[in-house]
Amino acid sequence: MHNGNIVTLSIATVSLLLSHSLRAEEKPMMKAVVAHEYGAPEVLKLEQIPRPEPNEEEVLVRVIASGVNPADPLTLSGKYAREFGTHLPLIPGYEIAGVVEKTGANVTKLKVGDAVYGYPTFGGGWADYITVKEWEVAVKPRSLNFVEAAAVPMGALTAWQALVDVAKLQPGQTVLIHGGSGGVGSFAIQIAKARGAQVIATASTANQDLLKQLGANVAVDYTKTKFEDVAKDVDAVLDPVGKETLARSYGVVKKGGIVMSLVARPDPAEIKKRGIRGAGISVHPDSEDLAEIAQLIDAGKIKPIVTQVLPLSEAIAAQQQAATHHTRGKVVLRIADEPKA
Q: Looking at the predicted structure, is the pLDDT value of residue 339 above 80?
């Protein structure tokens, strides 16, 4: 009898300990938009998944908003899985703005409570939380709310790295920017102007007013005017379109100038024949670039153009819009309410 009681007590104790340890192992959950297969935007599902934990080099960010990009459907298609380093399951979202919730042991520049924005290399922003490396984010521009800040990183970094790092654009030079009303083009116009350059920009009829607002010296309606009739002897061309637009761009660049494309490698034969330079531009996260961009934003030199804000539950619609490549400015997903100041 006595022994039986001891056994009974032991079983009860063991079951209590087991239930405690199971509860301790239960990870906090979060909402996320997940693709378990590659394909069209319709493969995306809104799910509850375990919240990630930062390693020693990372911070955990509570995501307030995440930008939508024209390249997102390419990533989702799986056609460029090797180039983009993607794998399934996939959470899209390559632009985030949010608040640091937790920091890894080796993190030195960021602390809990910091408002940050940035470009996570492998996506993951369409979720309540994300872990990022310190060099993928920077302190958010103070003058922007989180939705506006989430519209900045990838487009602004692409334009910055092309015009500043590759072209080394100088005051007084002239740049031709194709697709000036889009996610990259709208930042490229403003960055070029902030660096003292003259800007010729192209867009459709509906977006001519926007080109002027952004600071373009000359706005070209490509549906009515050939850009090569207006742009001559320019120092640099930024091309997010490719194909015929890129082919027609070589002839407008002066000797020693540069043609940069986001979607193709400039033709080596054309480059050599004309005595110009060519570069294919691929963007990378850079906290120092993001910090410089934030300074220009807070100085009133750059502003994002947000045209639509959707909840996370409408991620499929957001992705479908991005796939058209005709978004004026930026679509942003609002994932949480703006924190109280």
A: yes
Separation CA 277–CA 274 (nearest Å): 9
Give the residue among 102, 106, 95 at the shortest CA–CA distance from 57: 106
Q: pTM for this structure? A: 0.89
Residues written for the chain: 341
Does 11 map to a domain?
Answer: no
Q: How far apart, in whole angstroms, are the C-alpha atoms of residue 247 and residue 244?
A: 5
Residues 181 and 132 in one domain: no
Q: List the beta strands (DSSP E) in the chain.
A: 29-35, 44-50, 58-68, 96-103, 115-118, 129-133, 137-139, 174-177, 198-203, 218-221, 234-239, 253-261, 277-280, 306-311, 330-334
Statement to judge: residues 232 and 257 lie in one domain: yes
Pairing of strands 330-334, 58-68: antiparallel
For the stretch 317-329, pLDDT in tens is: 998 887 776 667 7
56 neighbors 104 (Cβ within 8 angstroms): yes
